Sequence to fold (1693 residues):
Amino acid sequence: MSVTPLAAALAIAAAWLAIAAIGVCAPHALRFVAKVLYPLGALAGLALAATALVAISQPPDETVLPLGLPDLPFHFRIDALSAFFLLILGSVTAGVSVFAAGYLRPGEGTLPGVQCLWYHLFLASMALVLLANDAYAFMVTWETMAVSSFFLVTSDHRIAEIRRAGYLYLLIAHVGAIAILMCFGVLHGFGDYTFASIRQVELTPFWATVAFLLALFGFGAKAGIVPLHVWLPEAHPAAPSPVSALMSAVMLKTAIYGMLRVTFDLLHTQIWWWGVLALAIGLLTALFGVVFSAVQSDMKRLLAWSSIENIGFIVVGFGLGVTFAAYKMYGLAALALTAMLYHCLNHAYFKSLLFLATGAVLHATKERGLGKLGGLIHRMPWVAWLALVGALAIAGMPPLNGFVSEWLLLQAFLFTPNLPDSYLNMLVPVAAAAIALAAALSAYVMVKFYGVVFLGQPREEKLAQAHDAGILERIGLVWLAAGCVAFGVLPVQVITLLDFVTGPMLGTNLSKATGATHWLFLAPISAERASYSPALVLVGLAVLTGLAWLAVRRFYHGRVRRAPPWDCGYPLLNARMQDTAEGFGQPVRQVFEPFFRMTRELPSAFDAAPRYRVTVEDHLWYWCYLPVARLVDRLTGFVTLLQRGRISVYLLYSFGTLLVLLFLVR
Amino acid sequence: MLSEFSWAGASAQLTEILLAVLLAPLLLGWVNQCRAWLQNKSGPGVLRPYLMLRKLMAKDAVVAHGASPLFRTAPYIVFGCMVLAVAIVPTLGTDLPYAPAADAIALVGILALARVFISLAAMDIGTAFGTLGARREMMIGFLAEPALLIVLFTASLISQSTSLATTVETLSHRELAIYPSLAFAGVAFTMVSLAENARIPVDNPATHLELTMIHEAMVLEYSGRHLALIEWAASLKLFVYSCVGIALFFPFGIAQGGDAAGLLLALPTLAFKLAIGGFLLAVIETLSAKMRIFRAPEFLGTAFMLAVLALLLHALLET
Amino acid sequence: MSQFLTPALTGQIINLLAAVLLLLSFAMLAQRRILSLIDLFAAQGFVLTLSTAFVAWATGQTHLWWSAGLTFALKVLLLPWILHRLIRRLNVKWDVETLINIPTTMLFGLLLVILAFNLAQPVSALAGTITKGTLGIALAIVLLSFLMMITRSKAVPQVIGFLAMENSLFFAATAATYGMPMVVELGIALDVLVGVIILGVFFFQIRERFDSLDIRHLEKLKEE
Amino acid sequence: MSWEILAVLGIPLAGGVLLALFGHRRAAAELNVALSLATFVAAAALTARVVRDGPLFAFGEQFFVDSLNVFLVALTAFVSMTTSMFSRPYMRIEQEHGKLTEARLRLYHSMYQLFIFTMLLVLLTNNLGLLWVALEAATLTTVLLVSLYRTPASLEAAWKYFILCGVGIAQALFGTILLFMASQKLLGTGVEALLWTHLLGVRSQLEPTILSIAFVFLLVGYGTKVGLVPLHNWLPDAHAEGPTPVSAVLSGLLLNVALYALVRCKVLADGALGTDFAGQLMMGFGLLSVVVGAFFLARQRDIKRMFAYSSVEHMGLVTFAFGMGGPIASFAGLLHMTVHSLTKSAIFFTVGHAAQTAGTQMMDDIRGLARVSPTIGWGLMLGTLAILGLPPFGVFASEFLILTSAMRQQPWATPLLLISLGVAFAAVFRKVQPMVFGDTTAKPLPHRPALIPVFVHLALALMLGLYIPPYLAAWYREAAKLIG
Fold:
């Protein structure tokens, strides 16, 4: 029986909903939920990935469900763009759900059944957002995703910061959703609210710009671009690790999907300065994200800020794509969008891998602060080596997947000089330098993260009892690490998948623009121009390292002698002498001074207990968010003047209204 | 690319790699010798690095108690990276079958991989020196990499390709015109290579003074064959940087295509250019003193400015 | 219609009664003492009954006689008696405090009357009843009693203002439409009666809690 | 004469009298529930009959039932039944806390039934004069309930409620008189001139100048009962100070009934004036209510007062929808009325028990409800998310329709609406979240709270959000055509 991919995808979403319902019926049954429901969820994720793989190469397919409003029932549609993001959702969920099955512990936050409800509702709503084909279905699934992830973030709601983070998150998500609703309002012209009729609407440049800016604001609030990013470093660390992995890996990408759907599918025309604006915002987000992640001393906040950096990276690719599309250079636009989509896939894999690793460390040591970890590579080898793969991937090291998308993006930058606008020719290569700086800084951050957590001496005694990850957790981690390596080594196959996505969006795609490509060499434009073969680099590296090892063993010897490390004459060497997280972030604080709002507490000579403390905060919180809060408070003060308690004044209001209206009528 | 795999090309590639690996310590010895002469000392002799490598290989490797397997595999990986980098850079001829596997950006990536592994190994022992060195090395790294990329961008914009072999071919065919953008890029490149190879203005290669050393601080814990491989890799890195400098700014004399005669002629020209380069490096080192660590950002900032200027000049004047 | 009532004469009598009613409203607005305020209220009820009876007599509308009788019983006898008993039980015989002094209230009153007149002018021209001229006065009395409620700071005067407004609405009904249908009249009368009883209960509760009937105590429920 | 209408009106009236006699006994609460259940059954039968064979007259056209008021009758009967179920344990706990005596309980039960009677009378009567009398009677019955606790604050609230609504309703009487005057020329001086169905027939020949002034008086009159902003001052005090079942019924039902009366008058005014004058007035007041109501929410400290202001905001939104007119906007307004009463009454049920658990209505002192009793905590959290218009619930469905039709018809109003919805969300959620989450030392309630009504209401609201059954949709669409 031929089940259409769309029907299969909807069935899988329904399966997730069913698992959620079963979960809430047995709230206390930890073993049942962990060992049966979560693996089932993982299987459903795998099935979704398979369906997406099938659907990505097939023409779009639509259906209408009798749910929703009487005259606007739920429309669903699967095309290459949504199939690609479904692929990310399905494959990452498979790994994360398996990890979550091993990760669940009794007595942590809400009951396991309730958490299973919100977890699978979160997955189902994300899948349905990617399939939604009319404004009402999109908005319902979009905010259900926000609400279910809010309950996941506040699962351990006894702690005040987590409540505050949850509130901030849902507030900004709701404000973003309001902007998206207004964007659909502007987009729909005078037809009805299905995407099919929105596509037929021809908007004037002014209204198209209004729609684009609203979409950028609305989806940016969910993606975490700079002025709207304050919730991300609060919400992701507050959530349990599998949830923060899913939020970073997939939920941020649904916002990117939204931006792509509005800009390239619903709006036909793109204006060049949209791209430049997105490029500028993306750059600012990338730099902001990576600079702040370098100074964090909590490992989950560090990864959350690094998610902001990668989102900035993706928005830069998006901006470049829009600029090229505006100038009708569709071949180059395909290159930029391929780089951006490739980075969405890569980030989903290595960020979830790192978040799960921190989850394993958190369970082993009950410790999140970097100042209290260290030397875990000896106690937790599996987690350490898999986290190393993730760290190298996120730092953009050649054989792995982070480097491929960075390489593609830099190639796209190299073509900006043949843009007609002279300013762009000169300014955009400088933007390329900023991207290179961000990539280099992410390497800095990852060395800090990996070095302080896994290498060196354990900074606390209790770290000695840290135990390695369970078997289910290892399977989840290995699945994601294999993904990182596979996408790093086989880019050409991934790009053929991406060509199905960029094709319908831009009219042409990478392979059409550049002709046949050899399966081994990634040569987006032409062989002479630029080519890169990760497989050969990996083989070369392995062969050379192996040869060096064999040569030394063969010609010389392999004797090793253990001794205490060099203490430069100072006998009392202890673990506290290593670099702390703050110490490691000090050069970045020095070099990027204007980014931070630093307050230093310097001890004076007369302090009984001298204490040196530096708090690093975010300027934007004081420049953008507090003024808005004060404005609302002042307006509220102004409005409460209406209700001062005197009955005669109230009667006067009624009398006045009557007289005014009577005047009006005369 | 791979279809017209020719044995001649492959053999040329292998000879280039072996030559580079063997000659790299010689270049390092020559630079130290020149510096000694300039400081009126008799100097340790040009072959001193070879003797040191042989001595270290023979010793037992002393490894700290807290060291993890990462610490012991890092030297091999770093050495592998450097040899791979040499395989990409067109030292003698441009007909390299391995060249399409990695272009200029990949080269920067491989060098970054080596840097990351050395830093992680340094942090593995968990002493103050290791982490101090790692932190400073990574800082130099994230400041130098953008400048290096912009220099390579300028070259690739001129030659319309990021693959180093193609860049050398296009640059060497051009008539001997003075390119202001290449001039600026050259100065920026020398500043970046000084910083990356831990030469004087940024870091003193010979020092063991805790407060100033960057590269030395990271390799403090290594000994025996591991230290040998690390030193060898460092000399290879210097060799790679000089060859890239030569390929981009003085490409004349590098053999075009696969003709054996060209290869034979290219060897003496390369040796001559490296000798001059080494001497100039020694002159720079004797004339300048090591800067405070937090002056390095300004130093590399100027390098970055020069590289961006070169790019803008190219966009303004040459297109 | 009896033989010696010419249309002009009835119009003049109705206008006279309406004018007396307006005068009484102004008097209540200016009154300082509660007891005389209640007497004025009873007088207003009496004039109202007279005008309704006269209109019934002039137009022969039988149900108007019933409503005149109902008004007389309720607004001249029963309500004033209840109010007098309440005042005696609560012994609140002291005079009426106002929020703004009497002359300014009177000035406002005049303005309101002018406004009511030219507002009701187009509407009364379309009314089908002989008493359509008095609709302007009816609207004026409604606004005056509204003003009275606003400017009083004691509970009892405020309630009396409320009852005066009911009176004026009843008068407007007779002026504009010869009175509402009987079932509605009864309903309104029942509501007014129950309303007064409930207000009486409130007087006792407020006295008990605040041991004064000054509304200025009732200002704690507010927003800061 | 159909027995359903007789039953729907007779049962609560008889109940009121019955409970006046036996209200003080133990079984009074159960009797109250039984009576409300009987009323609901009768209302359901009436609804079925109207749905089956169209509009229905009774008592010689004195009572008229069409698709518009029958769904309100059904909604009123259903919510009053669930409120009576909720009030049984609530009132027993209040009695044990010593706040209420036997006599007051008797007053409460009889007034409760009479209140339902007056509301059903307003909905079913065809005579606009009688409609006014019934609405005035509704105010009278609830005034005593608001001051049930005899605290200074409840007395003040009751006094303001009585005076302000009394004055407001008086304006409406003047409007009705003018309406009667205008209709007398066409329908004669008998009682037919006040029957809404007749007026509907001749509404195009009514005198426009009289109708415009009449509508102004009616808008100010019934607008005070709906709580539109310049006239809303009594609403927060009355809804916050009375016992919680009264607040639930006031917020949930009485506002709908008053708005129903206003809509009946708007239909006449639209017909007579021809222009969109009435609609624009209602839109103006509605928008003002939404914006001002939203900004009121930020500085609240008493939870019932906050949700009272939320009622002001939601009623403003519905008035705005009806003001816009057009089939989709009216459909959205009716849907919003239904879902708002369901959700708001559910919230008041949980708020009642939350206040009892923590012993105070001050939000800063109520913490960790989810830990003390998960049903109250999660009920309040889901109810708040529903009332704030977060999707899967029905409030979002109607808000989506209102906003999208506003974007088409009144684009200038949409940013204002959206900003105030955002501010309302920020203000309410900031206060409710710490109440539900977090830790506390409070003890669970002596009696198990009857929270089935809460989750029944929320389930209905959720259903309306995701899937509106076709017959319900047809029913709303027909009612929307009536409003025009």
About this structure: Chains B and C do not touch (no CB pair under 8 Å). Residues 152 and 190 of chain B are 13 Å apart (CA to CA).
